[in-house]
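Lab notebook, bench 4. Still working through the backlog of constructs that have no structural model yet. Next entry is a single chain of 107 residues. Request: give me the structure tokens for it.
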Amino acid sequence: MTMDTMLRLFNIEQLITPRVVKVLQRQEHIDDLQNWYESFNPLPMLRDLANNELKQAVESTALARMSDADYAGFRQYWDRLDPAQQRQYLCERAGLPDPERDRDFDL
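Model written out:
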């Protein structure tokens, strides 16, 4: 089975809470701001904080909404994805823009 199929078996859509969406949107704003800087970028610390907040939001929601066995199974598959893949997957499920898309700005 594919990773997507396995995660769907764990009803990943239940993890798309307003808290998770808010964190995903915050990451989107950080990405947009980061693209404005050319040489010195003051935002990596904010990006790390947002990544940690997303991890905590997803894991706490999964723990609260899944049985212990489902949570263990979910984590087994979820942890195989790197943070960028996790974010992209969640954005897709939440109907948010793909974070890996090209970001062209008209200045």
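Notes after review: The first helix runs from residue 3 to 9. Residues 17-35+43-94 form one domain. Flag for follow-up if needed.
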